[in-house]
Design a protein that fits this description.
Elements: E1 2-5, H1 11-20, E2 25-27, H2 28-35, H3 41-50, H4 63-72, H5 74-98, E3 105-107, H6 111-114, E4 123-127, H7 130-141, H8 145-154, H9 158-164, E5 167-170, H10 175-199
Parallel strand pairs: 1-3, 1-4, 2-3, 4-5
Length: 200
Amino acid sequence: MGLTGGIASGKTTVALRFRELGVPVVDADEIAHALVAPGQPALAQVVARFGADLLKADGQLDRRRLRHLIFDKPEMRKELEGMLHPLIRAEMEVCADAARGPYVVLAIPLLVEGGNPARVDRILVVDVDEDQQLKRVMTRDAATLEQARAILAAQASRDARLKVADDVLTNRGSIAELRRAVDTLHEGYLVTAWNAEKSI
């Protein structure tokens, strides 16, 4: 099952709840972070292309600085994605194949933009209105309104995500409400997985 949604929609909260329920979650962002950890070849590639000033004093990638750089320059963003996305997809396949459970969640923020939606049986979209997204991005990432809008503009539109969704979690309420909504979906997914296994 593919989990996606726009930036600051609540995907992390949803993925965490699935994990708490015992569901294997393969997270594209976590894999991306591991790939650019100090000493990793992908980090050396990023630094060679985009500059050593993207490194913090401890050798970690300054993600906020990189994000601001690439969202101001779409051609750079596409170049970075071309470097990292094939590596992320390959590692996700390895992790998904090794996962054990009634079903597996693939958390892919850019699933609609190019993450191969056909790879998953169902798509769950965490949905939130754009005004809330902008406020959350500005608060969380210390971004300006213009920067937040640029980030949203670089992603698939809300309508595009909703068109491919099999299931939608609308995140307008509290975290507790969102977690309860995940619980309800989980019960349904268990039944679907059990029926699919029984029919094999």
